[in-house]
Hints:
Blueprint: H1 4-9, H2 20-23, E1 25-29, H3 45-50, H4 52-58, E2 62-65, E3 69-70, E4 82-86, H5 93-105, E5 109-114, H6 124-131, E6 143-144, E7 147-148, E8 154-155, E9 161-162, E10 165-169, E11 171-174, E12 179-182, H7 197-212, E13 217-220, H8 248-251, H9 257-267, E14 275-279, H10 286-293, E15 302-304, H11 327-344, E16 349-350, H12 360-364, H13 372-384, E17 389-393, H14 415-427, H15 432-445, H16 484-489, H17 500-513, H18 515-518, E18 522-525, E19 533-539, E20 544-550, E21 556-558, E22 566-572, E23 588-590, E24 595-600
Parallel strand pairs: 1-2, 1-17, 2-5, 5-13, 13-14, 14-15, 16-17
Antiparallel strand pairs: 3-4, 6-12, 7-8, 9-10, 11-12, 18-19, 19-20, 20-24, 21-23, 22-24
Helix pairs in contact: 13-17, 14-15
The protein binds 1-O-alpha-D-glucopyranosyl-D-fructose and calcium ion.
Keywords: Hydrolase
Organism: Macroventuria anomochaeta
Protein name: Glycoside hydrolase family 13 protein
Amino acid sequence: MSSPQQKKKHLYVSTDKHRWWKEAVVYQVYPASFKDTNGDGWGDVPGITEKLDYLKDLGVDVIWVSPIYKSPQADMGYDIADYEDIDPSYGTLQDVDNLIKEIKKRDMKLVMDLVVNHTSEEHAWFLDSRSSKESSKRDWYIWKPAKYDADGNRQPPNNWAQILGEANSAWTWDEKTQEYYLSLFTPEQPDLNWENPAVREAVHDVLRFWLDRGVSGFRMDVINLISKVQSFGDAEIKVEDNKYQPGDKFYANGPRLHEFLKEINRKVLSKYDTLTVGEMPFVRDEDEIIRVVGAENEELNMIFAFDIVDIDNVPGDFKYTLHPWDARDLKEIINRLQRLMLERDGWNSIFIENHDQPRSVSRYTDDSDEFREYGARLLCLMQTTLAGTMYVYQGEEIGMRNVPPSWEPSEYKDIESVNFFKKYQDMYSGNEEKQALARKIMQKKSRDNARTPVQWTAEPHAGFTSANAKPWMRVNDDYKTVNAKAQLDNANPSPGYLSVHAFWKRGLEYRKENKDVFVYGDFEVLDLEDKKVVAYKRWSEKNAFVTVLNFSGENVAWDKLGDLKVKKWVAGNYDETEIDSKAKSGTLDLRPWEALLGLVE
Ligand code: TEU
Ligand code: CA
């Protein structure tokens, strides 16, 4: 199979400690856009309950719901005003209890989104904190006096940029008490002060509240930002034409992060059987990652690493930039993270979409009518054959696309897009080229792309809400052809082809049947150098598979199978009635975006 040298390097490694959360298929629901049941154009909790049979049938084990707590929705619920209540736009606590009951009935689990780096400015804790410098909750948040420049103008305490609006400072001035508070994401999202033990205890209570109500774990929003370097110094100047600078060196994986995570684990999580996944932007350091997800370290089960979803950002710059990439970049990331977890007993999460990212079929493949379904099946084949816990984002299973380029900027609702577009209008007013670039970047990178309503049917508003309602966000124009019903009704659109949905369903099933390989098995990348093809081998003591993915719109004669011999091609994104005619060794002729999975001798 592999050369003797490689064999020596890769004695069979397996993270063979079976856990339910390693084998689980997690489906992310972005509730506002999932399913509306009361005709107000906004998705709701009963809408999730209504679709449980659909999710069960797809092969989902765990449902992660983005925030449904009480919130003024400045950042779509990632600004929480009450951790122990549900926003009326989503329903009631009783609706959630009912959802949990129905989920359990189907032998599935619910994971909540825990947003505790910051609260809403409308949370009672913050209202109290900002009421006076003497408030007992003053130091529940991060308050600092102003600085003054040479001309005597008031300036924020340092030069950090706001994450969801980089033209602005990360600090917000409070007129009443004449100090700044830290608000890394938006002024409506003040950062909690985790240095204060009372804050940490209050957070622990939030976890207990939901665990005792029957949830099975948490996706922890930007959990690696909770410990800040207490000097609050200026960040290095990296983006020349911006007043404020990326400050992540000071707040990502800060000095007390591991202490705080271990405390959560010891005091709360260790008393329950949970799935925990920490969202961790900015971190690339392997030791840092293993400190969190290493089996021995008692922090979190896994993290969301940003390597793949940052692949097209200009390094060191902000996210709303465009940067070319090819299969080599993707392979480098996959290889590094797969090997890291095997060699150091950690655990991966496998995802390429969520509510903060553009649609994967548009971003990593070709979403034209000609290739969209091939691209979506290719990405499914990739994800379902990698080691880690699988995350599927709503609509990914039917190959939903980015919003069309023709949409006006006014269709973009996300605060991050709004701030970005405003920055370009302010900075480059009258410059048509820059305005066109801003629109292009938004269409390629904005979070709105993933937030259009789920396309259930070909009926008005794609069946997301009632015909006479106005959905909170416009439905993608392609819903008449791209929708779940069409793919369920016609799982075999032509002989040898599966609909994207049917391909996902079979892929998830196959992954579970062969979990010794796909979940727990070893990994070896084939040929890091090729610019178009991503390929790797996965194996256990029983079986070995090879995945070959042509990440290009061209025909490729690929000859890097080496001494691997394919016994049988078991899945492909082209006509599977002809799959047996594909070469089983030597040179493999790949069509545009062709993807193959083979059982290896
Ligand atoms: O996102 C954190 C984050 O850093 C990015 O993914 C963010 O979306 C941005 O695009 C970076 O440029 C989490 C949530 O997933 C996101 O929806 C929230 O807006 C954010 O935290 C604040 O809670
Ligand atoms: Ca509703």
